[in-house]
Amino acid sequence: MCPPPYGYKKDPDNPRKWIIDDEAAEIVRRIYRLCIEGKGIETTARLLQEDGILTPAQYWASKGIRKGGKNSQETLCKWCKSTVTKILTLREYTGTLINFKTYSRSFKNKRRLINPEENRAVFENHHEAIIDPATWEQVQKIREGTKRRQPKNAEKNMFAGLLYCADCGHKLHFNVNHPNSAIEYFNCSNYRGNRGTCNETHYIRADSLEQVVLLELNRMVSYLKNHEDEFAELLAQKTTKDYERESRNRRQHLQELIARNQEVDRLFEHIYEDNVAGKLSDDRFMKMSQRYDEEQQQLKKDIAELQRQCDKEDDRAFCKEQFLRAVRKFMEMRTLTPVILHELVERIDVYHIQGKGKDRTQRIVIHYNFIGTLDLPEVEEYPENVVLDSRQGMAIEYLVGKAG
Fold it and tell me: Where exactly are the structural domains of the chain?
């Protein structure tokens, strides 16, 4: 076994077993919470330093644990961005052990190379988890959407990374109007006016978006309070239908990849026999075998990923409970925070504005975590058309429509 990462320690009674180091594990949980709250890597590192939290290397040194490598930090609490990034991406915090992440070409060459995922050894439920799998996956999605530098002198918007162009599928980028910095908005990152290929901007104001999403969440809460049994039944039907469709498509694709992988094996044997019999030249054999080998390496990688998804398919009841827990948390607070938003919403598809003047309309579709889109029946407290006061001189008429 490799040495335990920050947050774990070896069991005194069994050196081959990892147990949670409570003091360090709490810092790991805090780093994940800060990410969900919308804090960036640099901000997280700065907050840990300001609070006097020892870096992992200094923490291990304070406990008398010897670790390899050089200590290049001038201060005991100066966290590097790379350290925070590694903690946020380490799957071991979910209780999974992954061995053989790197390899060397030979004993003469000490340089370590990244090992393909299909060649690694993965052991699920190997040790107690510090971060639950749902939270870990949520953080990975958040980090995928935060690679672009945010506008100067502006805080990161909580919708950043959640908005997608309904036409081209690219993310919407957060921007601040100049010189009127009070206007914050999103538009398609792939717009052709910015050397992209999308024909429309898909512009949407951040304040308007927040009001619409907040109203939709309030409609959901109202329906849950007044029709709890009907809401549970609606959720059960939704998760069942989506689960079965996605599972069926995923397993069908997996079988197709496995069949192609077996076919490539047969093709390779065929060209080998032709080469031995003199029907195929050595040069031609090398080129064809290299092509088949590259294809098979990619097939093995895709098969391993699909197999992993099939093996860890979430239980439908668990998905429902996870979503209901997040809805009830919002019900208690009734305010939209980055944490609540990312626990409830997976993505939001934004369509381009249609019409002109007072007749302008814009469609958005909310995809919730675990269940996808959700069409609610009419809610008494919230009729199908509501006028929202967005800002001075501007009102939004909110119209309820079908997600499909």
Answer: 8-144, 163-228+319-399, 232-316
d(CA 345, CA 367): 6
Assigned token pair, 143? 């980090």
Sign (positive or negative) of CA dihedral 395, 380, 334, 36: negative
pTM over 0.85: no
Residues 170-198: b if buried by 16+ CB within 10 A, e if exposed: bbbbbbbeeeeeeebbbbbbbbeeeeeeb
Gap between the Cα atoms of 311 and 386, Å rounded = 44
Q: State whether residue 127 is helix, strand or coil.
A: coil
Q: Which two tokens stand for residue 158?
A: 């909580």
Which residues fall within 8 angstroms of residue 114, CB to CB, at 6 or more apart?
101, 102
Whole-Å CA distances, 94 to 88, 97, 127: 11, 9, 9
Q: pLDDT tens digits, residue range 376-395?
A: 877 777 655 555 555 554 55
Of 42, 79, 40, the closest CA to residue 58 belongs to 79
Give one DSSP letter per residue of 148-163, joined into a string: SPPPTT-PPPTTTTTE
- The domain defined by 8-144 folds into Hect, E3 ligase catalytic domain fold (3.90.1750)
327: confidence class by pLDDT, cuts 50, 70, 90: confident
pLDDT interval class at 47 (50, 70, 90)? very high
Which residues, other chains included, contact 271 with Cβ-Cβ below 8 Å and sequence gap of 6+? 280, 285, 288, 289, 292
pLDDT of residue 142: 84
Tokens for 359?
């007749």
- Tell me: the pLDDT tens digits for 76-111? 888 988 899 999 999 899 998 887 777 776 555 566
Q: Are 190 and 170 in contact (CB under 8 A)?
A: yes
DSSP-derived pairing of the beta strands 8-11 and 14-20:
antiparallel
pLDDT band for 189, please (50, 70, 90 cuts).
confident
Round to whole Å and give the CA distance between 365 and 372.
10
